[in-house]
Design goal:
The protein has helices at residues 13-40, 44-49, 82-90, and strands at 53-56, 65-70, 73-79, 113-117, 128-131, 136-138, 145-146, 152-154, 166-170, 173-176. The protein has 180 residues and is of the alpha+beta class. The chain folds into 2 domains: 12-41; 49-176, Rieske [2Fe-2S] iron-sulphur domain (Rieske Iron-sulfur Protein, 3-layer Sandwich). The radius of gyration is 30 Å and the shape is elongated. 22% of the residues are buried.
Length: 180
């Protein structure tokens, strides 16, 4: 009687060919899948343009200012009081450093709503609402003051708070990021 000893089996040519075929198939599948997955990722210009943001204005009370984020930047939405609207409309806008009438900064028929960038035009700080001499915004970093229309009035800010593209999709809802 002989006892058979179990020796490790040497790989055959068939084993080597199976491994090589599997590796080539995996590389081919990756080569086909890569462009497919790449096309699902948004283009850089699409990301930079930002998707529109809808904001419901119904819960806001008169005098309230909220901050939302669109395209990575803060946006102020102000529900202006009758006093704020009147002072913005009657101000001598021609004498301002960045002259612009209040009517050019709001949508007709929606004068109570102001939508502007929340970034100070001096050095990029975020001003505080309902502060300063004009009941608008006050940048505590360098002292710039904006009125209730977001126009630069005092301090080193060279320009008004930038307007943001938006449109009313109903009386109580806006879409930020539209061409409107």
């Amino acid at each position: 009687m002989t006892t058979a000893t179990l020796l490790p089996q040497q790989p055959t040519r068939r084993d080597v060919l199976m491994i090589a075929t599997g590796a080539v198939a995996a590389a081919g599948a990756a080569a086909v899948a890569w462009p497919l997955l790449a096309q699902l990722t948004p283009d850089a210009s699409t990301v930079a343009a930002g998707f529109p943001l809808e904001v419901d204005l119904a819960p806001m009370v008169v005098g309230q200012v909220i901050k939302v984020f669109w395209r990575g930047q803060p946006i102020f939405i102000s529900h202006r009081t009758a006093h704020e609207i009147e002072s913005a409309q009657t101000a001598d806008w021609q004498s301002l450093r960045d002259p612009e009438p209040d009517s050019a900064r709001v949508k007709p028929g929606h004068e109570q709503w102001l939508v502007v960038s929340a970034i100070c035009t001096h050095l990029g700080c975020i001003p505080t609402e309902h502060q300063g001499n004009y009941d608008g915004w006050f940048c505590q970093c360098h002292g710039s003051q904006y009125d209730s229309s977001g126009r630069a009035r005092l301090g080193p800010a060279p320009r008004n708070l930038p307007l943001v593209p938006y449109e009313f999709i109903s009386d109580a809802k806006i879409r930020i990021g539209s061409a409107g």
